[in-house]
Amino acid sequence: MEVGNVGYNNQQFWIKIQSIHRMETMRYFILIWLGQLVSLIGSGLTRFALGVWVYQSTQSVTLFTLITLCNTLPLIVITPLAGSLVDRWPRRWVMILSDSGNCICTLGIAILLVNNSLSIYYVYLLTAINCVLNTFQWPAYAAATTLLVPHDQLSRASGMTQVAEAIGQLFCPVLAAVLLVSIGLQGIIAIDLITFSFALLTLLLVRFPEPKNVDLSLNISIKALLG
């Protein structure tokens, strides 16, 4: 009877441990999700504001629509390659480098705007670079989700990701239009830089488990580069 009680207690103990582990991993995902949501909103604000700036500067619908092309063409071309590369690279570092690159591009736009040197060609170039970086970031985010979230919570995590995308598509244009009137393009870019910083902070705080097929040499090289 005592042996049976010991076995039952051990089983209950491991159940509690697994439950705590699931709660912790879900908290990590929520933190990453929140960072990506904030970053997505900031990027959406800047994307809409730059489109308005291009139209106001050129009064050309054709030049305005070229921004959409810069946001979609790299996605179509690079996505097949990005997916296979992300499967081999550490997901966390792919997301960190993508966010860092996007932040640098946004900072470049801010510097050009302050110096009155911003042109539509810089906008097209930096928008295309942002799209390329996002093409790597979102597959890494999706792959990291399956590693961070327990299997019984994957549907919840998928729903949260879809909500974040919907907020970025529906909420950002309305908010950007309001902010353009109140704080202008420079203020929106400042908000975008803050959102990137928040997203990077969340990624630096959370460690991702990596599958066995990941090439950790990139992880080692980055750490060596950072000292």
Keywords:
0% strand; mainly alpha; 227 residues
Description:
There is one protein chain. The protein is mainly α and 227 residues long. It has helices at residues 2-58, 61-86, 91-114, 120-148, 154-182, 184-205, 217-225. The protein is globular. Residues 6-10, 13-21 and 220-227 have low confidence and may be disordered.
Ordered list of secondary-structure elements with their pairings:
Elements: H1 2-58, H2 61-86, H3 91-114, H4 120-148, H5 154-182, H6 184-205, H7 217-225
In short:
The chain has 227 residues and is mainly α. The protein has helices at residues 2-58, 61-86, 91-114, 120-148, 154-182, 184-205, 217-225.
Give the termini distance in whole angstroms: 58 Å
Strand pairing plus helix content: what structural class? mainly alpha
Percentage beta strand:
under 5%
Unreliable spans = 6-10, 13-21, 220-227
